[in-house]
Design goal:
about 200 residues, 9 strands, 5-stranded parallel beta sheet, alpha/beta, two-stranded parallel ribbon, about 20% strand
């Protein structure tokens, strides 16, 4: 017998105390009788779909093993499935195998940096819908904006509070991914630096 079936309450009473009793009993929905059967069936179907939904899958990419473990534990404690990759060269194989809902990558890594990695991922049409987020200690808003314009969807700055990191994938899941910059403030004065693929750096 399944022990975590959702509790839906239908009652002839609609007063505050009855609704309070339902909440304290663990009810996920409440209707006053007589009720619309279609609405009841729809709510039950929605709740069952939520209960059987697969955990959110996050792929973390960082050349820092300690950082990977730390951020991975935060997301795992939030109920997500997490895969970590230290070498950017292994990311495509990991995406194929793990099928992530989100890729969170460091911006600065040896060999292949986060910007180049995002561009490589975006070259694969089958990965086009996967959000890519940079998690980096970069503080220059101009460079953050430039990185976003190249193919990433958002930018998180290290160090990041555990609660902020844990809640971010859920916000990404319900947001409309536009592929454009997310409103980070531009630096005042001169135009932001641009990524130069010839020197693999900002110019």
């Amino acid at each position: 017998v399944q022990a975590n079936l959702p509790l839906l309450v239908v009652s002839p009473r609609d007063d505050f105390q009855t609704r309070l009793w339902a909440v304290r009993a663990g009810a996920v929905a409440f209707w006053k009788a007589p009720t619309d059967v279609l609405a009841l069936v729809t709510a039950l179907d929605r709740q069952l779909r939520q209960d059987t939904a697969q955990p959110y899958r996050a792929l973390l990419v960082d050349d820092d093993p300690a950082g990977l473990r730390f951020h991975g534990r935060i997301l795992a404690k939030a109920g997500m499935l997490v895969e970590t990759v230290e070498r950017a060269e292994e990311v495509l194989a990991s995406i194929d195998r793990f099928n992530p809902d989100l890729v969170i990558a460091d911006l600065y890594m040896p060999g292949v940096n986060g910007v180049e990695l995002a561009m490589i991922i975006r070259q694969q049409s089958e990965y086009d819908g996967i959000p890519i987020v940079f998690l980096s200690a970069e503080t220059d808003h101009g460079r953050q904006q430039q990185a976003l314009g190249i193919g990433a969807d958002d930018f998180l700055q290290k160090p990041i509070a555990p609660a902020q990191l844990a809640g971010f994938p859920i916000r990404m899941a319900v947001a409309t991914v536009s592929g454009s910059a997310t409103g980070l403030p531009m630096t005042s004065g001169a135009a932001p630096a641009a990524w130069n693929p010839n020197i693999r750096g900002w110019s």
